[in-house]
Design a protein that fits this description.
By secondary structure, this protein is mainly β. The chain has one domain. It is about 15% helix and about 45% strand. The chain has 2 helices and 8 strands, in the order αβαβββββββ. A hairpin with a 6-residue loop joins β4 and β5. The chain is globular. The chain starts with a helix and ends in a 5-residue tail after the last strand. The relative contact order is 0.25.
């Protein structure tokens, strides 16, 4: 999991909505296009790129495709746009525990469900099997914030 200061500032600016109720968690959803061609990395994605390159060193270029955020109630599912009409489904299964970890379930397009616990403020990048027309790989990154007190 990653916490990048540049991307966190961008998210703070790009999503003014706050979780209105104590039982809601704000979910940030970042879509990145990664390529083996070229080596330009969007400044906002440097931390995500570094983490992804540990798993897939052939991916050299990273471009921000979109950022969205929604406040989700516990056990309520919502869909996030990925690319080309494809969507990812996210469900907050458990609010923050005493250690500040939130449990969520993600169903990226063309993948099985992933259930994991995450600390608030950290991104989990997921390399999807989705490719653009140019053959570039789509990566989604998910962060929850703020968590309950």
């Amino acid at each position: 999991m990653i916490a990048g200061p540049c991307l966190m500032m961008l998210l703070a600016l790009g999503c003014g909505e706050k979780a209105k109720e104590a039982r809601k968690v704000r979910v940030f959803f970042v879509v990145t296009i990664a390529t083996e061609k070229g080596d330009k990395i969007d400044d906002k994605l440097k931390d995500i790129a570094t983490e992804v390159q540990r798993m897939r060193p052939a991916l050299k270029g990273f471009k921000l495709a979109s950022i969205s955020c929604k406040s989700l109630a516990i056990d309520a599912a919502d869909l996030f746009d990925v690319i080309d009409e494809q969507k990812a489904k996210i469900v907050i299964e458990k609010a923050a525990d005493k250690a500040g970890r939130v449990q969520l379930r993600v169903k990226p397009p063309k993948m099985g469900e992933i259930t994991y616990s995450t600390p608030c403020g950290k991104f989990l990048p997921i390399l999807t099997p989705i490719r653009t027309e140019q053959g570039d790989q789509i990566i989604i990154a998910i962060r929850v914030q703020p968590c309950g007190k």
